[in-house]
Amino acid sequence: MSTPTATAPPRFWNRLSRTVRLVILLAGAVAFLFPFYYMVVGSLRGTTTGDLSSAVPGDLTGGNYAAINSAISLGRSLLNSGIMTGGVLLCTLVFGLLAGYALAQLHFRGRGTLFATLLLVQMIPFQLLMLPLYVLVVRDYGLGDNYLGMIMPFAINSTAVFLFRQFFLQMPPSLFEAARIDGAGELQILTRIAIPMARPALLSGVLLTFIGPWNEFLWPFLVTKNTDMQPLAVSLAGFLSNLQGTVSNPTGALMAGACVLAAPAVVLFLLFQRHFTTTDIDSGTKG
To answer: Which of 88, 142, 210, 221 has the least CB density, counted as fewest CB within 10 Å?
Structure first.
């Protein structure tokens, strides 16, 4: 007579599965956060020697932030980055909302071809267009060392147009039809109905667009020769190339500049991440 094989209860396997998933997620979180830890602690260290594990409160200092500020003027560089990023965000939202609404809700000849062209543009690397853009913006328009010259190539973001189009397509057509029956124009429908309901898409578009121009290096580097016009990413590259000898701890000063560059993006993400999963579409059809 054979003895039945003992099996673990389902509760044990469920608990084991949750534990394994937790360990994997924890390991991923540590791997993701370690570069930030390295950057922050490195920006607070007074010397370039020693490993980060030896950094204790007594070894930390804020002198590196003062050093990078004296070398490249953090305030001016941050202002330049803010103006460039703000201009790009404004253009992206205005043109993206108009184009996305037109591609989603208006019916006109060639709409499908235009949308296919939009998708094709996303496949073209920006570096491929950089030389003709440089000739056009700097030589023909004379916008070198100018905020408008830094903003123009990024004024229309095809990714944002695609994002807004997809969001507007999800809205109930009855909302727009009822508004047209009541005599509302397309611009009124966009501003009074579509945009108030598109808050998640707007926040996503802002964050996705913010990262690009805020961290952009190559294009501002090409069009700005005056250091007073350079955004922070370009100023940090200039410090790395030419000004390291002006500070006692160049690595710490560079880490401090990197912390300042990364801080706005991290803060924006932490403030608005909960809005990514919310939507107001259903509320427009209730009642």
So the answer is: 142
Number of Cβ atoms within 10 Å of the Cβ of 144? 17
Euclidean distance between CA atoms 151 and 99, whole angstroms: 19
Residue recorded with tokens 């390991």: 27
Contacts (Cβ under 8 Å, ≥6 apart) of 115: 103, 165
Rg (CA), the chain: 26
* Cβ-proximal residues to 268 (8 Å cutoff; 6+ apart), any chain: 206, 207, 210
Write phi, then psi, for 170 (nearest 5 degrees).
-80, -15
Instruction: End-to-end CA distance of the chain: give it in Å, rounded.
Output: 70
Q: How far is CA 14 from the centre of its chain?
A: 38
Write the DSSP assignment of 115-135 as a string of letters.
HHHHHHHTTS-HHHHHHHHHI
**194 class by beta-carbon count within 10 Å (0-12 exposed, 13-18 middle, 19+ buried):** buried
In angstroms, rounded to a whole number, what is the distance separating the alpha carbons of residues 61 and 45?
Answer: 6
Q: Which amino acid is present at 22? A: L
190-227 residue pLDDT tens:
888 888 888 888 888 888 889 889 999 999 999 999 98
Say how far apart CA 231 and CA 221 lie, in whole Å. 9
Structural tokens at position 248: 């006692």
58: which 2 tokens?
Answer: 């007594």
Residue range 211-220, pLDDT digits in tens? 889 999 999 9
Q: Phi-psi category of 183—alpha, beta or left, where left has phi over 0 and alpha has psi -120 to 50?
A: left
Angle between helices 250-272 and 63-72 (to 10 degrees): 100
Q: Would you say the pTM of this structure is higher than 0.85?
A: no
